[in-house]
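Just curious. Protein, please.
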Amino acid sequence: MKTLNFNIIQLTICLVVGILIAYYSNISINLSLYLTIIFLISLGGLLFVLKKTVSKTMGFSFLCFITTMSIGVLITNLRNQKLTPLHYTKTDLSNQSITFKVNNILKPNIYNKKYTIELLKIGKQTVSGTALLNISKDSINSSLHIDDIYTTYQSLENIAPPLNPNQFNYKHYLEKQYIYHQIFCSKKQLFTVNKSPYTLYGYADLLRRTINNKLNLYHFKTDELAVINALIFGQKQSISKTVQNNYINAGAIHILAVSGLHVGILLLLLNSLFHPLIYLKRGNILKVGSILISLWSFAIIASLSASVVRAVTMFSIISVVMHLKRSTNIYNTLALSIFILLLFKPLFIFDIGFQLSYLAVIAIVTIQPLLVKLWSPKYKVIKWLWNIFTVTIAAQLGVIPVSLFYFHQFPSLFFVSNLIIIPFLGFILGLGILIVILAFLNSLPDFLVTFYSIIISAMNNLVEWVAEQKQFIFTEIYFNSVQVFIAYLLILSIIRWGIKQNYKRVYITLISIICFQCSFIVNKYNSNNSQFIIFHKNKHTIIAHKSNTELKLNSDLDSLNNSIISSYKIANNINVLTTNNLQTIYNINSDYLLVIDSLRAYNLENFKPTYVLLRQSPKINLERLINTLQPKYIIADGSNYKSFVKRWKQICKKEKLPFHNTSEKGAFIISLN
């Protein structure tokens, strides 16, 4: 058998496998620690005994792979705060004060400002762990700041799972960040302990606030200032929903996220800035050191977000390799950066941005050289634009399957916004950094403010125009994990065929196409079922009847532009949607559902419904209703007052009748197959 040569790519794959094993299994810290020590000792012993010949043996390669997987399991367990003795879940959470430090500022929603917090004490007991803090907007004018320490007497609450089928699981999303509970409170319910920064994150936040306060003195518009914060500092909290949606629909949202594109441009700027250092003694070392310090200082100012950390890590490695003047495989460099990142943040593997950024870079270095060979323009400007166009196409090919899986839409005009903005992004970033520095030094001239405002406004207007071309935005595309895998298999087979055409590669490509088509047939077959659903929606009632790929919807919603309906439609391949007003009686096969609202009309002779739905808090005598109609189930949806639902639940318990509260148990679903 051919000797199995291992390299950083294979070791990175093994590390990823170990992380996945730890996440989806219950291997204890002690077991993973003992196994890792045993494997490391075995590996060291083998190296000592066999010396030079050991690296050529298959057994050594296999031991390296197993050891790396074991390290993946160990670091995942070590990073899991819930497994530590001081984690707050191991203490009594009832009726005690909670002292915490603000860790990060998140994007707010309609009702609350959001923060991640580090728990310091519960009562008098020192604890560890991270939670989510929600502060009602009507109770706070100013935001909390990183490193602020507060005490509150509000209790920690569980994070609710999704209450409707196919909804985004926010609970699982937060668990991957080791967040298991949240606090809801007003600003008045927080008592200040300390408001002075004492970590790098706190001082970076103070610097950003100082710069923003100075920028506010100039005539930047709100949206312009928000975009500047996103471009320079990676802070997207203040970007309006409209502007964010415009960038998403235009396929240009990566421009607002400080990631590989921005850090790559910054590296080029720093490389030029520090170039004179090479003429000094040990100039290359000074230049590399200055670049690395600058990159990581920028990462700290940008709050060390996941996208910034992975980009700076990747380009730090590229910078070192580049200045060592050693030839290296770009794939090995990418794998090394992934390996280092996952050693410190193993659950980055589940981060959407992590996946998209590396897939985009891998696609660029793999596919773009093939695309650029398809045409060789004579003129330099056209050739330059052609290179940018092929980079954009390659990046999109790399991220399309995963993007469809997560976001279910594809902006086909992505190349327009990217082709116009990206050539000037280096200038925009460089000028933005200059403006930030001048504003901090109180030396920013008005003409520069006006000029930069025009540039940012023009960029926003261009993106808005592209986003308004709705006919080119394909939405509600269902794509599951199997299709993602097959799609990448198809892309890979086409690339291999493009590099070298032969019968075997054509055969593999055709097989991939057939598998891809079969996945859509299987999805359509799986959608051929029928359901009757009462969704959960606060203050509203949504009743739906699904029959194969058709959905009949009855609701009191003003608009059908609702995430609950949209998520269900996408996941169930709904092609036909019909809407109507709510009815009083629904026929569910041989059973009936009676809807009772605030009008309380239910005195029907000889009518015995199987299900009774209570909506809009009807003032009824539920015991009399149960005795009169003799239903088998009582259902209360999200349109009712909590006090009413609580009383109904007690009555049903007394009458020994099943009671389904959608705010606790989620949507009520009846399978009709």
Summary: The first helix runs from residue 8 to 24. Residues 1-5 have pLDDT under 50 and may be disordered. Residues 206-474 form one domain.
